[in-house]
Amino acid sequence: MMETLRGKRMLYVGDSLNRGQFVSMVCLLHRLIPENAKSMETFGSLTVFTAKDYNATIEFYWAPFLLESNSDDAVVHRIFDRVVRKGSINKHGKAWKGADIVVFNTYLWWMTGLEFKILQGSFEDEVKDIVMVSTEDAYRMGMRIMLRWVKKNMDPKKTRVFFSSMSPTHQKSIDWGGEPNKNCYNETKIIEDPNYWGSDSRKSIMRVIGEVFRKSKVPITFLNITQLSSYRKDAHTSIYKKQWNPLTAEQLANPVSYADCVHWCLPGLQDTWNELLFAKLFYP
Ligand SMILES: *[C@@H]1O[C@H](CO)[C@@H](O)[C@H](O)[C@H]1NC(C)=O
Ligand SMILES: *[C@@H]1O[C@H](CO)[C@@H](O)[C@H](O)[C@H]1NC(C)=O
Ligand SMILES: *[C@@H]1O[C@H](CO)[C@@H](O)[C@H](O)[C@H]1NC(C)=O
């Protein structure tokens, strides 16, 4: 992998799940590199791991919708009334130009209900022109804009582009026949049913991804990680993650209430996503 990256820039673009995959890749590779020949720096939305002797970088860019949105601040982004601006990829896209390998993801931030707010015009407009569209239509618009950006800005002879499907969550234990009102907390075994599919991974969105890629000639490699990850109710960070605010007595008494069943432990599942990426990079 390091030889492939020599003189190159690899970039993950998306939300915190893609950030997890970026961290997984850095963890897998960095131990090969001596302490004084590597660095990790953050510049706003961009985090850059540099392997100096290889003149290579592995980077992560925070853009949870890929397009411009009101959730674009890399640190302060707990926004529940989410709005995405129609057609607006260049605000972020200008930071992606020149990358040799790009890995996109986007999904969870769109999942606020059955509809989603799309801004036509600009965030600076005094009277904002916002329309509600179905989540599927909003997501389809986002994917098409992403493909158009790739077509315009990336040379398929020199670059590789990947897109990851949705990362499943395990917030409702009734999905796998568990007790009601429980989640991934205290789960230590995988789901054995090969056909298992959690309710949080919307099949309608998977259909949109399939349709958009079928109709497009833009060369993108699809990393279909949803099903293989859906078995792993045991692999989330659960209660073993850094808490940004101290936990209350009430929370401590009920760990289910603060278990994170979205993100994944490392080492862990996301290393497998990178192994899949690695295989597709070498044997397209
Ligand atoms: C390092 O890589 C960049 C591309 O990421 C390239 O423009 C530059 O010429 C390379 N420098 C050396 C010393 O190889
Ligand atoms: C965790 O699960 C085990 C069985 O799998 C059970 O015996 C134990 O009570 C559970 N702990 C909590 C705190 O729910
Ligand atoms: C991804 O894989 C799942 C499970 O194998 C499949 O049902 C789905 O259709 C695939 N998605 C696409 C867009 O091919």
Q: Helix and strand layout, with pairings?
A:
Layout: H1 2-5, E1 9-14, H2 16-30, E2 38-43, E3 46-51, E4 56-62, E5 83-85, H3 90-93, E6 101-104, E7 115-120, E8 129-134, H4 135-153, E9 160-164, H5 203-215, E10 221-223, H6 226-230, E11 236-238, H7 249-253, E12 260-264, H8 269-282
Parallel strand pairs: 1-4, 1-6, 5-7, 6-9, 9-10
Antiparallel strand pairs: 2-3, 3-4, 7-8, 11-12
GO molecular function: O-acetyltransferase activity
GO cellular component, one term: Golgi apparatus
Family: Belongs to the PC-esterase family. TBL subfamily.
User: Strand arrangement, largest sheet?
Assistant: 2-3-4-1-6-9-10
Task: Output the number of helix runs.
Answer: 8
Element-level helix/strand string: HEHEEEEHEEEHEHEHEHEH
Structural class: alpha/beta
Radius of gyration: 19 Å
Q: Quote the CATH topology.
A: Rossmann fold
Measured distance between first and last alpha carbons: 15 Å
Q: What attributes does this structure have?
A:
284 residues, alpha/beta, Rossmann fold, 12 strands, 28% helix, binds 2-acetamido-2-deoxy-beta-D-glucopyranose, TBL_C, O-acetyltransferase activity
